[in-house]
Structures are given as structure tokens and as C-alpha cells.
Amino acid sequence: MAMEKISTDKARQIARIKGLQPGLVKGTKGVQFTKGKNTRLQVIGWDDFERALATRQLAVFESGGWMKIMKA
């Protein structure tokens, strides 16, 4: 299956089902999803996540329930 760009609302729905939250990689500008247990990641709110995506020209892509953050 090909990766398809999805809205952050759709990403929120998938994340909620999978127990994921948006996060920042500490010491970098990297963003990714986390279950909140990784000490290298700082959990952030969805508004901050959306701003980080827009600032870095990134988007969430999905295939079969698997999400990846890539250049838009």
C-alpha cells in the first residue's frame, strides 16, 4: 500500500486508538509519535505538533494504520 497524506484530525484519531501522543525529540526540532515512555521524547500538545509540522513543512502520511511524518 502507498503512503497517503492525512489530516492532523485523522492522525489524532489513529493516535488515540493506538495510544500515541505527539512528541518532540529532545535537543532537536524532530517530531514523532510516542507512547510517552521514551525519555528522549517530550510529549507536546496537538496545537504545538501542528505548528511544528507547518514550520518544518512536514505532514503525516498513513498506510494501513501505520503513520509516518515526512516532507509535505
| Helix percentage | 25-40%
End-to-end gap:
18 Å
Gyration radius, rounded: 11 Å
Order of secondary-structure elements: EHEEEHEE
Sketch the major β-sheet.
3 strands, antiparallel
Oligomer: single chain
Shape: globular
Strand order of the largest sheet: 1-5-6
Q: Low-confidence parts lasting 5 or more residues at pLDDT below 50?
A: none
Number of E-state strands:
6
Mean pLDDT: 94
Tell me the strand percentage band: 35-45%
Structural class of the secondary elements? alpha+beta
Number of domains: 1
Total helical elements = 2
Question: Could you outline the blueprint of secondary structure elements for this entry?
Answer:
Elements: E1 4-6, H1 8-18, E2 21-25, E3 31-34, E4 41-43, H2 46-55, E5 58-63, E6 66-71
Antiparallel strand pairs: 1-5, 2-3, 2-4, 5-6
